[in-house]
Amino acid sequence: MSRRHSPRPTDLASELPPISYVWETPNRRPRRAEWDIPDPAAPGRLTPAMRAKLERIVRRAPEVMVKITGRTKDVAHLKSHLAYITRNGELDAETEQGATLAGRSGLKDLQQRWEDDAGLDKRRRDGLLSINIILSMPAGTDAIAVKDSARAFAIETFGDNHDYVFVQHLDDKHPHVHLTVRSLGHDGKRLSPRKADLQAWRERFAGELRLRGIAAEATPRRTRGRVRKADRGAVLGLRKRKITPDVDRLARKEVLSEVRGGRTAKHPWEEKIESRQDAIRRRYLDYAAELQRSGAAADRELARQVRQFVKDMPAVETRRHTLKSELSELAKIRSVGAEHRVVADRRDDTRGDERTR
Question: Residues in domain MobA/VirD2-like nuclease (predicted)?
Answer without folding.
Answer: 103-203
